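To fix ideas, we quote verbatim a fold written out as C-alpha cells:
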Amino acid sequence: MWKKLLNKYRPYLVFFVILFVAAGIFLVSGNKGSETAKNTAILEIMQPWQKLTAKMGSASSYVCNSVLSFIYLKQDNDKLNKELSNLAYQNNRLAEEEKENERLKRLLDYKKKVNFKTGMAKVVGRDISNFFGILTVDLGERDGVVRDMPVITPDGVVGKIIEVYPEYSLVMLLTDYKSGISGVIQKTRIVGAINGAGNGLCKMKYLSINEEVKAGDLLVTSGDGKFPKGLLIGQVSGLKPAADSMSLDINVIPAVNVLKLEEVLIVFKE
C-alpha cells in the first residue's frame, strides 16, 4: 500500500524536497543581504505611493497658497477701493467748497458795491409746483426780515418776501403768476408793468403798440420804492400786438436763473 502511494505521488515529493532544499540554501547563503532585499522590496512597493503623496502635497500646497494669495489680494483690493471712495468724497467736497466760496465771494463783492443794506441768505427749500414759484430762505424775523423786502442776486431781481417766520422766510419769485414789479426799458426809458408768466418767464404789459421796443432790450427796476432803482430784471425775448390791438404783448426772460439759486441777498429797509 505505501509502495503504491509512494509511486503515485513521487513527482510531488521530489518537487517539495527540491523546494525545501532551495529554501534552506537561500536562507543560509542570503542571510546577510536579506535586510537589504527586504528594504529594497519595500521601497519598490512604496515608491509609487510616495510619488503620489508628494504630488498631492505639492497640489495641496499650491491650492493653499493660491487661496491665501486671493484672500490677501481681496483685502488689498477692498482697502484700495475704500481709499479711492474716500478720495472721491474728499475731492467732491473740496470742489463743492470751492464753488461755494466763489459764489459767496461774488455776493460779498456785490454787497460792498451797492448803496443799500443787504443780508445774505441760503436757499433751503423750493416749491416744485408752478415751476419753482416759491423759495424758502434761512433768514427770518430774528434776522430782521419783514414782508415785501426785495430779494436779489448780483445778476438781478429774484422776487420778494411774502411770508416771514422766526427762522426762515418764503420768497415769491419774479416768475410767479402773482408777482408784479415796475420796470423800465433801459434804452428808451419806457416804463411798464412786469408780471410773472410761469414756466420761468415774465411778461411786460401796458405798453402802447407805438412804443419803440425790440427783442434784446434790457429791463431794469424803475425805483418805485419797493425795489432799488436800476436792478436788472431781464431781457425782451419777443413781442407782438396784444389781443386788443392797442398794446404790445412782450415776453421777458428773467436775468436770474432761479433753478441755479443757492444763495440770495435780501434788501433791508433803512
Q: What stands out?
A: Helices lie at 2-8, 10-29, 34-113. The chain has a mean pLDDT of 79. The longest strand covers residues 232-241. The longest helix spans residues 34-113.
